[in-house]
Amino acid sequence: MTAPAEEERTFAYTFRKPIGVVGLVSPWNFPLAIPMWKVAPALLSGCTAVLKPSPLTPLTSALLVEIFQQAGLPGGVLNLVQGDVAAGEALVANPAVAGISFTGSLPVGTAIHAGGAHRLLRTQLELGGKNALIVCDDADLAKAVDAVVHGAFGQAGQRCSATSRVVVDVRVREEFLDRLVGQVAGLRVGPGYDPASRICPVVNTARTEAALAAVAGAQRDGGKVLCGGGRERRDDLPEGCYVQPTVIRDVPWDSELAQEEVFGPVLAVVDADGFDEAMTIANSVRYGMSGTVFTASQSRAFEAIDRFEAGMLHVNRPGVGAYAHLPHVGSKASQYGPPECSPEVWGLLHRVALGLHRLLSLGTARNTPMPLICPADEGHRRDVRC
């Protein structure tokens, strides 16, 4: 950016410079897309990068880095580190690493941010979600049910934007639940390579146990399981971690299932007496990844858009995913730093402010002092000899 200077014969402008080495820590649920969301802006910013994928999906990132190498990327520009906690901690602690981009759980993201705070490490964190879909009393129930099935059970619920709560107006609750359970009960659980499968396995036994524990906890809190609730067991199933798609009604709004991320095919249905109460319940969690409303009222839709405490909003459509040309952004505890897939990812660059006074011309003696304003965040001047 060029700007007028306070002094005569002075040229003032700002430009951007890469911050240096960045660590890119990616999850297992989108093992190609999310590393690319991180690698592309890092390299285009002029940074060198160290990619550390989840230990559950190491091969995809290895192949990705190999493709970059085959395309002619110079050695040392994009590096790969495999490992679990120790590898991530080493990136955060290494003083040569100027920034970390992380996608994953809130506890790990918080630990990364706290671990680098003493040296002012730049962090970009995309964290969890406990996303609500509100079904108003004037909603198209058939479309709302389709959206819930897609949002709650696609990819077995293993998405940060998954619909994990339905907040339904009590006036349409029974009809909505009848339609929903009818669809969910017919979803076939199986391996992803089977074209007949509608629900894939969860990623490992730990996620299986977490989903089943969430169901048990919801029942202790007064929730009623309408369908699913256990492991899928069939003679034709190959080895895998299969959890039945589960719908639980009468879930208290402040219970653990209604407040905390499960990352599995478990849906909490929470009652609301009217739109205002539904909005209050939707915003009652610490997360703010996505929010969805189904209504026939234009004014109510725009009021929901204004009141939702979430980064990605949807009206009368599934509440998962993001358009490729729009940011993937959350609010509250779902996001810290610049959102991915947005112009703000150029936070991997820092601004430099420069003032050139009495720019040298032909015939000017060399070694003449020229005042130069160095990076604005350093706040000091130097004499540079030309």
Structure in a nutshell:
By secondary structure, this protein is an alpha/beta fold. It has helices at 33-44, 58-70, 85-93, 106-117, 141-153, 173-184, 205-220, 256-259, 275-282, 298-307, and strands spanning 2-3, 10-18, 21-25, 48-52, 78-80, 97-103, 122-126, 131-135, 163-169, 224-227, 246-249, 266-272, 287-288, 290-294, 312-315, 331-332, 335-336, 349-357, 369-373, 381-385. The protein is 28% helix and 25% strand.
Give the SSE map:
Blueprint: E1 2-3, E2 10-18, E3 21-25, H1 33-44, E4 48-52, H2 58-70, E5 78-80, H3 85-93, E6 97-103, H4 106-117, E7 122-126, E8 131-135, H5 141-153, E9 163-169, H6 173-184, H7 205-220, E10 224-227, E11 246-249, H8 256-259, E12 266-272, H9 275-282, E13 287-288, E14 290-294, H10 298-307, E15 312-315, E16 331-332, E17 335-336, E18 349-357, E19 369-373, E20 381-385
Low-confidence stretches: 359-386
Instruction: Kindly state the percentage of residues in helix.
Output: 25-40%
Query: How are the strands of the largest sheet arranged?
Result: 10-11-12-9-8-14-15
Most strands sheet = 7 strands, mixed
The beta-strand count equals: 20
Distance between the termini: 24 Å
Instruction: Estimate the global geometry from the Cα principal axes.
Output: globular
Please tally the helical runs, counting DSSP H or I stretches of 4 or more residues. 10
